[in-house]
Design a protein that fits this description.
Blueprint: H1 7-42, H2 44-55, E1 56-61, E2 68-69, E3 75-87, H3 95-103, H4 110-122, E4 129-135, H5 137-145, E5 153-162, H6 170-173, E6 176-178, H7 181-189, E7 201-203, H8 206-210, H9 212-216, E8 220-226, E9 232-239, E10 246-249, H10 253-263, E11 268-273, E12 280-286, H11 292-295, H12 300-307, H13 317-320, H14 330-340, E13 349-351, E14 354-357, E15 360-363, E16 370-372, H15 374-379, H16 383-393, H17 395-405, H18 426-432, H19 438-441, H20 445-449, H21 462-473, E17 477-478, E18 484-488, E19 495-497, E20 504-505, H22 510-526, E21 541-547, E22 570-577, E23 584-590, H23 596-599, H24 601-613, E24 615-616, H25 619-626, E25 638-639, H26 657-668
Parallel strand pairs: 2-10
Antiparallel strand pairs: 1-8, 2-3, 3-4, 3-5, 6-7, 8-9, 10-18, 11-12, 11-23, 13-16, 14-15, 17-20, 18-19, 21-22, 22-23, 24-25
Length: 680
């Protein structure tokens, strides 16, 4: 029997289904319309900005780093443009294979690979890192022809920092290096990320570090339209980068080179100041290093050689090296005696060659000098006079007098890293030996005695000794040392002088300062540096010093031949010239060299001849000073104004063999220095 369908029911079900389907479709269109309204109206601005961002790119324009010049306009740090071959590790499938393949196109040295490896460890994987720098035009062309084979590898034009004088004044100028993590964090904390976009390098040492803000400049931006593949189509807008300021130093780089050459292979430091302003004329630390090694990122072998060298070339000895001042401390002790009333200029002390205290004998450096007054105590460098004076003053009185002179204090010079040194007092010892217990914290009277001759706990930098010397030369008026004297806007060429800090008058009685200055002049005329300043065309004041590097027992005799080189005494000299109106004051130390009169004072003499007379040592004289064989200048001095070729890459060209042989023969005929019994 045939079943009859219910047409009405089927139609009803069909209509219901159509209605549901229609509602679903309507709902779908409503959702689409709502989404369209949301995207086109509610999020219009945001999406428009994203679309514009996809269409355009903002590229940072790295500013040219500012130049560094000496006081006469000689360039100490500059920039040059060169091509680099760079790899973005995240875009390279097999990094080692890629580097090997690149090495068949352009020369890649093992040093380049080591540097690249070090940079990878310090950088993010998506950053572009140089594998080779300073490509030649031929190398650029060879790579360009094969570029399609190397995804993730590109050639970029970059500005490179250059130090045209190499190692000369490297501790002053400093260097730049790649920004590390801690520096990135500091940049972020200071809200300077925008100004360092696109910048990989930052000042690491010296003026490069301390004046980073002035040297860096302001980063510009360029907005460009890009294709779907990210290729720039056209420039839409740009804000130019502002180059960094030129920084002008107070040092005379020719004087700096003279001093560094006079040191030769010896270690030490010299700081020379203008007493009337505090400007630094020379700031020498030997040995030095080549800052150009750090520009591309120093490789591990070069870093190890510098870092592990026994000579410590990375140590800024002028700023961070601390030394006992030895007998150079005696003039300041004498001034303390006059100001405190503990001694008068005519007060007599009988120098018998030793001084007894508490059953302990404190020796002098030779036979007794007999009765000496203050003038003779400085000229003849009497130890006994200052043993007695130290005992009468006491450690705390010495501390309180020396502190305003800058001993054991931060001078405030305008580069980072200065150390304080040690100016002992009872309070200092309590703090310094806090962890060792009460017995070690106690100050014993016997510890005071050796402080009077610049030994004991005393440890100061040459910067501090130079500042104190300049203060006495300037009649008790102290200036803060200053290395940077001006900046120059590279756009307007306007020079902005950096005003020195106000001077501080320490309030010494003029007649007391006059006594000390007269005695210091006596040192060069009848005392321990007489031979060095024989025939000088000016009067100067100074004081020799010899400071122990290691202790020698009172019953033992010092014999340099029996000691390792690094255990021998340091040679020191402090001085100013001309005596009546000083234009320069300095302090110099030659490490482990011996007598100050034989090794330190001759350097000071050549510095004064250069500054005051415009004279440059003869080649034989230069070689003799380097070996400690010269007192007064040897041979005919050259005119400093006529000395050319001293600076730049060719300045280190060795003397030709014939001339070197002649110099060696001349040196062999010089008698060895024979210091007087009271020389120190």
């Amino acid at each position: 029997m045939t079943e009859l369908r219910n047409v009405e029911a089927d139609l009803s079900r069909f209509r219901a289904r159509v209605l549901v389907a229609g509602l679903v479709i309507l709902l779908a269109f409503m959702l689409l319309a709502a989404r369209l309204v949301f995207l086109q109206v509610v999020r219009h601005d945001d999406l428009n900005e994203q679309a514009e961002s996809n269409r355009t790119a903002v590229v940072p324009i790295v500013p040219n780093r500012g130049l560094i010049l000496d006081r006469n306009g000689v360039v100490l740090a500059t920039n040059y443009s060169a091509y680099t071959l760079e790899i973005t590790p995240s875009r390279v499938a097999d990094l080692e294979e890629t580097i090997e393949a690149l090495g068949r196109l352009v020369e890649i040295h093992p040093r380049d690979k080591r540097r690249f490896k070090k940079l990878r460890e310090e950088s993010r994987n998506f950053e572009s890192l140089p594998i080779r720098t300073r490509l030649t035009d031929e190398e650029v062309a060879r790579f360009a022809a094969q570029r399609f084979r190397f995804p993730g590898v590109d050639i970029k034009a970059r500005l490179f920092r250059s130090y045209p004088n190499g190692e000369l004044a490297s501790h002053v100028v400093g260097y730049i290096g790649r920004i590390n993590r801690s520096e990135k964090e500091r940049i972020e904390e200071n809200d300077e990320e925008g100004n360092y976009r696109g910048t990989d390098y930052i000042g690491k040492l010296g003026v490069e570090q301390s004046f980073e803000a002035q040297l860096h400049g302001n980063t510009g931006v360029e907005q460009v339209e890009t294709s779907a593949g990210g290729r720039a189509v056209r420039k839409l807008a740009s804000t130019a980068a502002v180059p960094g300021d030129t920084v002008m130093l107070s040092i005379d780089i020719k004087l700096q080179k003279l001093v560094e050459d006079l040191f030769g292979d010896r270690r030490g430091a010299l700081v020379a100041l203008d007493p009337s302003t505090g400007e630094v004329l020379a700031f020498v630390s030997k040995p030095t290093f080549d800052p150009n090694l750090f520009v591309d990122g120093i490789d591990s072998e070069s870093w190890q050689a510098l870092n592990e060298s026994l000579d410590k070339p990375l140590l800024n000895r002028a700023l961070r090296g601390t030394y006992p001042p030895g007998s150079t401390y005696k003039p300041f002790m004498a001034l303390a005696a006059l100001e405190s009333g503990k001694r008068q200029p005519g007060s007599i002390t009988n120098d018998t060659g030793s001084w007894m205290f508490g059953g302990h004998q404190f020796r002098s450096h030779g036979a007794g000098l007999g009765p000496v007054d203050m003038h003779q105590s400085i000229v003849k460098s009497s130890n006994v006079y200052y043993y007695s004076l130290a005992n009468d003053l006491g450690v705390d009185a010495m501390h309180d007098f020396m502190k305003p002179l800058g001993f054991g204090q931060i001078t405030g010079i305008d580069i980072n890293g200065e150390v304080r040194g040690v100016l002992p007092s009872q309070e200092w010892k309590r703090e310094a030996y806090k962890k060792k217990g009460p017995q070690h914290q106690k100050w014993y009277p016997g510890e005071t005695i050796s402080l009077g001759i610049g030994q004991g706990y005393n440890a100061f930098t040459m910067l501090q000794l130079a500042q104190a010397t300049a203060t006495v030369a300037n009649n008790g008026v102290r200036h803060k040392p200053q290395l940077v004297i001006a900046t120059q806007n590279p756009m307007t060429r306007a020079i902005e002088p950096i005003a020195p800090q106000p001077a501080q008058n320490l309030g010494y009685k003029p007649e007391n300062v006059a006594v000390i200055r007269k005695a210091l002049v006596g040192v060069t005329q009848e005392g321990t540096s007489t031979r060095v300043f024989a025939g000088a065309g000016y009067l100067s004041g100074g004081k020799t010093g010899t400071a122990q590097a290691v202790g020698v027992g009172q019953k033992d005799k010092y014999d340099a031949r029996k000691l390792e080189e690094h255990q021998r005494d340091h040679a020191l000299y402090m001085a100013f010239a001309p005596a009546d109106h000083p234009k320069i004051a300095l302090a110099v130390v030659v490490e482990n060299a011996g007598f100050g009169a034989a090794h330190a004072a001759p350097i000071a003499r050549r510095v004064f001849d250069y500054v005051l007379l415009g004279q440059y040592p003869s080649e034989v004289d230069m070689a003799a000073v380097q070996k400690g064989l010269a007192a007064a200048p040897i041979g005919k001095p050259r005119l400093a104004a006529e000395m050319t070729g001293l600076l730049g890459p060719g300045a280190t060209t060795p003397t030709n063999p014939a001339k070197a042989a002649a110099i060696a023969e001349a040196l062999s005929k010089l008698p060895p220095p024979v210091p007087s019994a009271d020389a120190d």
